[in-house]
Amino acid sequence: MLSSRDSERVAELMRETAAAELLPRFRALAKEDIRLKGPGDFVTVADVEAEQRLATGLAKILPGVPVVGEEAVEKDPSLTDLIARPGEACWIVDPLDGTKNFAEGRDRFGIIVSLVRNTVTEGGWILDAPRGHMAVALRGQGVAIDGAAVKGGRRLRPPIGFVGYKVRKEFDRQLPPTRRRSLGRVSTLNCAAAEYLEILAGRADFNLYRRTKPWDHAAGALMMAEAGGAAQRFDGKPYAADQPLNAGLITAIDPRTLAEVRALFEAVRLPLLQGLPRG
Asked: E strands within 132-275?
């Protein structure tokens, strides 16, 4: 089990990394500092340098525990196999979540770190790098933002949340207006870190993702559960960090909201949800 002091060291390392590698480069990148890994998938020198600093620091906190970093996985995809090792632990790191926002000068980006043991997420940390807000969750010990405990439960009526552009377009096109009104505003921040923090802060209730890279969601899914909510795959099974990327994810600040949101999206003829059990 990670000690409270070790958890504090992880948070300190993330803040130091943001201050040293991210914030000085924000809105100061040269053209050669940005490249594309794939269509719409940006990577910058800040991603690479931040991941190296985080990996070095995490190795000092828990010696011998390997790091699965987003940028390292680009070079060696087999690193993700470390997440599923029975009885073993690994760190999962997103050194700059919201890279496209960062590269385009929008201040919605952050750092996400999680600790997974035997495929179960034991700890999660999310830093809103521009604003300095930090969410921390340890399994069985709750979740807090900037030291203040977060408790879930029904908040907004109708519920609002975050979905991708393609899903939102089909949802608005297909759902009858009378049913559509049972859900509030749906949008995207193009940054999982920011969206999870918005939900924890009470400004949103849920999110939905078609693809679930572990560095984007292992920490956030733990935080939803520790706040009293839920994180569920599209097939109804609980989220796990080693799940297939196309298994999908719906998280919500309380289970009832998750069930309502799931039912609404199942009413839309979307391939990603059609025919799957509710769970």
From this structure: 133-138, 143-145, 148-149, 161-162, 186-187, 206-209, 230-232, 249-252
- What is the C-alpha separation between 204 and 222, in angstroms, rounded? 17
Question: 214: buried, middle or exposed (CB in 10 Å: 19+, 13-18, 0-12)?
Answer: buried
Residues 6+ positions from 185 with CB-CB distance below 8 Å: 160
Token code pair at residue 34: 């940005």
Query: Do 4-149 and 161-266 come out as alike in CATH topology?
Result: no
| CATH topology for the 161-266 domain | D-Maltodextrin-Binding Protein; domain 2 (3.40.190)
> For each of the chain's 279 residues, which pLDDT tens digit applies?
689 999 999 999 999 999 999 999 999 999 999 998 877 789 999 999 999 999 999 999 999 999 999 999 999 999 999 999 999 999 999 999 999 999 999 999 999 999 999 999 999 999 999 999 999 999 999 999 999 999 887 666 788 999 987 777 777 777 777 777 778 888 999 999 999 999 999 999 999 998 899 999 999 999 999 999 999 998 889 999 999 998 889 999 999 999 988 888 877 655 555 444 332
Give me 260's structure tokens: 């309502």
Surface-to-core class of residue 106, CB atoms within 10 Å of its CB (0-12 exposed, 13-18 middle, 19+ buried): middle
Note whether 158 and 181 are within 8 A (CB).
yes
What ranges do the domains of the chain cover? 4-149, 161-266
Residue type, 151: K
CATH class of the domain comprising 4-149: alpha beta
What is the reported pTM? Answer: 0.93
